[in-house]
User: What shape does this take?
Amino acid sequence: MRYAQGGGLTDTERGKRERLRLQAVERFETGQKSAEVAAALRVSVRSVERWRRAWREQGEAGLLSKGSPGRSKLSETQVVRLEQELERGPLAHGWGDQRWTLARIKTLIGRLFHVSCTVEGAWQLLKRHRWSWQQPARRAIERDDDAVEVWKKETWPRVRAPRRNAAPGSSLRTKPGSRWAQSRFP
Assistant: This one.
């Protein structure tokens, strides 16, 4: 194998692979068999067969690099517009409440720019541009924070069950010193 399997390639490495595929095209046009092309380019026969199929179906365009899989599908102007639309809020885009979920952001990107992305891709976009996620505050409208604090300080200590004394005990119920036996036979 000329190159390792897997991803994580730089633009330079992707360019090398593209040039290798285009060298294979030159050999396809001269009528060389897949095994000969694979041996000459030091790649697997299976890769050459895959390239040949793509070349037959799409021409040289089928073998060109599609770029980094991790790059953003949105241009900078589209990102600026997305930010403006997010600031308008979910209600302006037809949702019934004021929560921006990742699924909604994904849908909005599709509607605005006709670009498909995953929920994970939407999350990566938010992180890349240092936008924070929203977590709705699940609190009752009637909640009185001052009354809650008073209750925690004054009422809760009286209501709370006292802790048991830390005394040596046994987990065996048959032993007389076990907590179970003490609670059953005082």
About this structure: Residues 11-29 form the longest helix (19 residues). Residues 1-6 have pLDDT under 50 and may be disordered. The CA atoms of residues 93 and 108 lie 8 Å apart. Helices lie at 11-29, 34-41, 45-58, 76-88, 102-113, 119-128, 145-159, 179-184.
